[in-house]
Amino acid sequence: MAGGVDPTRPMPILPLALLIGALTFNMALCFINTNVMGINDTMVMGCEVVLVATALYLGLGRNAAPYLLLAVFFSYAVLLMAMRPLIDPKAVRDFLIPVAFYLLGKSCSDPRLADRAALISGLIVVVFGLFEFLALDLYVTYFNIIKYYVARGTVAPSDVSSQTGALFASGLRPDSRTLLPFLGPHRASSVFLEPISTGNFGAILYIWALNRPQMAKRWLTMAAGMTAIVLSDSRFGANVCIVATVAYLAAPITPRFVWLVAPFVMLIGFAIYGFVSAEVNWQNNFAGRMLWTSRLITSLSPAAVFGLSPDKPFLSDSGYAYSLNQIGLFGVIGFWSLFIFAPERSPQAWRFKVCVATYICLLMIVSDSVYSIKTAALLWFMTGSSDADAGPEPAPIAERSMVPNYSAATPG
């Protein structure tokens, strides 16, 4: 039985439809807003609520542990809101997405479903990316992206630039394109409506295919991911693929404790850099993003570091600063610890988890899009299904206590 599952067992359709819905609902709303009727932020939130609620409904089984986890999470969220005081449902939504889709993936316990979801999603992203890239005028006729973001309240009308037209602000590279410069300044947004998520999604597809040597059409899935990275000219996505490959190779000899402390070591490093650096010139490159995230982290008040500040400044350019401001340091430690110590049943699953941890640690330097359902739904579904899969053969007993002990992991 490949992957520890019965290859003749039919795969459920509803989880797959849910993942495709999470991928494409923004594009559907953009089409409606452009061609049918105006939409607003309530409609967008309503779609997300339906998707997350459905994932929870399908993912929660008879095991009491997930219910206890949700009870602790909601209690902590209510406590923070009472101490601020501020009602902030977005903070709940941001951190409920990983929980819901992880549980959904674990309940399916069949990585073949994640294989199929990755391939179908990748093909959808590439097809629409090519459509946009090769027939931009026709694409924006049906999908006026900037109009959609204004309608949902993400972009103020005064911030709309005539240079990018109907595209999102990052739809054109202001300087020269990094990947295949002859393609010009246009960066494909595809179904995500903005190119940053397209590049991030390409990296996710690459990471999954890298860790699934037994999957059908593995190389097609990886090629779809690389194509998405090139079409969106995602320097970040290309770099993640390189670093994740190194992490994949190093995973078997890396203690779990290293990955537990990794984001907090980075957080401390950025804080020190922000306090001691006299650099003030910001550039649109990775060094500039590191400087900017350092500035945002050091701009937080002590109350904000512990999630107790009622102020909600713009922190979307730093996932580290955003996370602290939303759920506080203790909440971040708790969520990251749950992710790292969630039991996986095979060495292959540990390798994938290490690659995901690498992706998250790097992504939070430049963005808070780790909480975007467009890319997070499939990522956390993959993580859940990977953790639940026993692999092609029994997992060995770890020789060191700090290295994952798969024999002690609980099933499913």
UniProtKB/TrEMBL annotation:
Keyword annotations from UniProtKB, A to Z: Membrane, Transmembrane, Transmembrane helix
Superkingdom as given in the UniProt entry: Bacteria
Keyword Membrane set for record: yes
Coiled coil, from the record: none
Transmembrane segments: 12-32, 39-58, 64-83, 117-140, 191-210, 222-251, 257-278, 290-308, 320-342, 354-373
Protein's UniProt keywords contain Isomerase: no
Protein name in UniProt: Putative polymerase
Organism: Bosea lupini
The organism's taxonomic lineage, starting at the top: Bacteria, Pseudomonadati, Pseudomonadota, Alphaproteobacteria, Hyphomicrobiales
